Amino acid sequence: MHGVTFRLRQIELTADGREIVRDKDVAQRELAVGRAADNAIHLADLAVEANHAVITRLDDNRIAVTSLGTLGFGLDGRVTRAATVDCRVGAELRFGSFRITVSQVSDGAVLLTIRQIADKGILAADFDEKRSFSLAGLLPGKRKVSWLAALLILAIFLALPIASHRLREADAKAPVIGDASWRPGKLSLAHHGLEDRCEACHVKAFVSVRNETCAGCHKDAHDHAPTNRLAGARADPPLGESFLQFVALGFGKPGPGACVDCHSEHEGAGRMAAPQQQFCADCHGSLGERLHDTKLGNAGDFGRLHPQFAARIVTDPATRRLTRVSLDAHPRENSGLAFSHKLHLDPMGGAARMAASIGRERGYGKGLACKDCHRPAEDGIRFKPVNMERDCEGCHSLAYDKVGATFRTLKHGDVDQMIADLRAADFSPTLVSGRRRPGDFAAGGSYYADFAGPPIGEGLIRRALSRDGVCGECHTPAIRGGKPGVMPVTLVARYMAHGWFDHKPHAQEKCSTCHAAEKSSTATDLLLPGIATCRTCHLGEGSRKADVPSTCAMCHTYHPAAGAPRKPKTRNR
């Protein structure tokens, strides 16, 4: 027996008399026939019992038809309750107003053609149970209902709000009836207060939000660059996108570079989505091809197309000049400090032993760690500047005299005051004895200071400000204004002037993961990670290998604040 046992062919008539033919192949050996909807052959006629009969495939050429209820069925003009039909010869079965023609097709399947017919002048539709027990006979046709529904929707959701908007122009605060149906979604958290004030942004009906409307509230949102530079930097869009822009302009949408190109609203009551990488790459991906005088390298994807980081560092401590240098050039910083991270972080060195001896008082561990001097700011983004009195004086004492039980200390950061204090000092007791101490803490070592006895006065001042003196440990001696002093210290608060970095999301990493401080023996070492270090976790927006797929907006801002980030702040010490 073939895989397809029966082929059911349902023939129905449309309202204008056209036939609709649907075929369905059935692989089962038995087919239930009746008015119940779960029958394989469903006949919607009150003259048919719910479970009227069953048709069984006996072999390749024969079927058996058997009644299940009290009524029989028609077979070639006579009524019977059971019959065997040779499919090669064919037959016609009658159940109420339905006729089932039996035949056999070339692939061996039994073809059952089901058709509802008129009988004795009565239309077959009168026997249709669905029409007899529904409102179908009382309602207009489906086409008329569809047109009426479409017109009703236009009237309620388009004409009514427009009419309400026009009629309330005398009272601008009056609500617009039905305007809620036009909202494509909730506003973001930033604009949540404008949820019921559409006119705050959509000043003109059926006109896109304009740039000047956004600028009315966002007065501090500066342009990314001068207008002429932006126009020259933007790449020509593809033909398809150009056509879409042309159509959009015809409907009042602003041109390329408008606020709404980047800031999409009505996308949910959360944070406004950051701009996609392509928004920046449209200009910066091939910027050098259009702006030949630009000093910016092409950037289109952090993992594949991005220049090496460039840091603004102090190259001349006397003038405090800042120069932007690529990290590929291995730049050296001259901040005016003389400092060794390696000496302070060596777990077996003198600084570690000193830290261990005063650990309970200062909160140190067995040795010095980065956190002992570099303390996070309140927001966790950056770090507070290193403070001499708080972070250094525990080991580098500035005490120079003792009067009774009170120590007199030099004022850090004010050389003139220090000179005045030392000139006026009258030393009698020895503040620091010459008892034997190891390494740099022995007499003459880096951390040994004995202000008692000669030299005094100018000699003591010269000694303190010398390279081997208490000030020379960390500062570069210099003659300033004809007087002894030190080179001013300039600590850059933000090296990457064109980018942004947040330490808080990186709190799970060790400082040494990005900053090689343990190997740095001089203050001129620039302990900044290069782009290769960042790429161990961060790659472009579409990267599947990256731990953190990163868009341009993660590190860069489109609207720089006044004077920033092009002019980094500095801290003077």
Record the strand order, biggest sheet.
Answer: 2-1-12-11-10-7-8
Alpha-carbon Rg, integer: 45 Å
Helix content: 10-25%
| β-sheet strand percentage | 15-25%
Number of strands: 22
User: What is the average per-residue confidence, as pLDDT, rounded to a whole number?
Assistant: 83
In the predicted model, the low-confidence regions spanning at least 5 consecutive residues are 120-127, 428-435, 446-455, 563-573
* Terminal CA distance: 98 Å
- Provide a count of the helices: 14
Shape: elongated
Largest sheet data: 7 strands, mixed
Structural class, from helix and strand content?
A: alpha+beta
Please explain how this structure is put together.
It is a single chain. The protein is an alpha+beta fold and 573 residues long. The protein has 14 helices and 22 strands. The radius of gyration is 45 Å and the shape is elongated. The N and C termini lie far apart (98 Å). The relative contact order is 0.07.
Topology:
Blueprint lengths: L5 E8 L5 E8 L3 E5 L6 E2 L10 E5 L4 E6 L5 E3 L2 E3 L1 E5 L4 E5 L2 E7 L5 E7 L12 H4 L9 H26 L43 H7 L9 H7 L5 H12 L8 H4 L14 H8 L25 E7 L4 E6 L14 H5 L4 H8 L1 H4 L25 H5 L6 E5 L2 E4 L5 H10 L33 H7 L12 E4 L2 E4 L3 E3 L38 H4 L3 E2 L8 E2 L20 E3 L1
Parallel strand pairs: 1-12, 3-4, 20-21
Antiparallel strand pairs: 1-2, 3-5, 5-6, 6-9, 7-8, 7-10, 10-11, 11-12, 13-14, 15-16, 17-18, 19-22
